[in-house]
Amino acid sequence: MALPLLRRWLDEPGSLTRRIRHKCSGCFYVEVLGERWGAPFLDEARRLGLRHKNWVWLREVLLCCDDSAWVYGRSVIPGQTLRGHLRGLQQLGQQPLGSVLFKRHPVSRGKIEIARLAADDGLYRQVVQSTAVAPGCWARRSVFHVAEHPLLVTEVFLPALAARAAGGESF
After folding, report:
1. Measured between alpha carbons, how far is 68 from 122 in angstroms, rounded to an integer?
2. What is the mean pLDDT of residues 125-144?
């Protein structure tokens, strides 16, 4: 996947869900791969300022257009973030996290980190369990703060999105 084709997607400061819905001429939907308490990857824990063994709420989804998965999403939400009005983040079901975050709460986004996934990356191993991807997919992640409570969102741009981006200038 060439970076220039995806640059606008990787740098998107707003809701990726909104952008996908806008660009998807067919049926947009969220396929929930899993929601559970678990340990974050070491780099995720560091990014959130947590100990590696601190349990967090993990949510993994595919953002799809018609029959194609465009983006793999992974949310890492510390337990202290899931208090009060944010408790509902554990019960999103097929609702996209972005729709909830950007509509209902004042949200600030930290720096967007961009990288290519390598075959030895833990995140790559998670993605490959759900989709047929080769190493080298572009990904981005950001820490969001909702009422000063952090959560980490990682988005992996899958080959179907890259193919669509390669097919049109306005994409």
Report:
1. 23
2. 87
DSSP string, 28-72: EEEEEEEEEEEPPPHHHHHHHT--TT--EEEEEEEEEETTEEEEE
CATH number of 3-166: 3.40.1410.10
Rounded to whole angstroms, how far apart are CA atoms 153 and 96? 12
CA distance 170 to 168: 6
Q: Which segments of the chain are extended strands (E)?
A: 28-38, 56-65, 68-78, 107-109, 113-116, 138-146, 149-157
Whether the Cβ atoms of residue 153 and residue 77 lie closer than 8 Å to each other? no
Q: What is the dihedral of CA 43, 14, 131, 117, to 10 degrees?
A: -40
| Residues in binding site for substrate | 59, 97, 155
Cα-Cα end-to-end distance for the chain:
15
For 39-73, how does the pLDDT look when each residue is reduced to its tens digit (9 = 90+)? 999 999 999 999 888 899 999 999 999 889 999 99
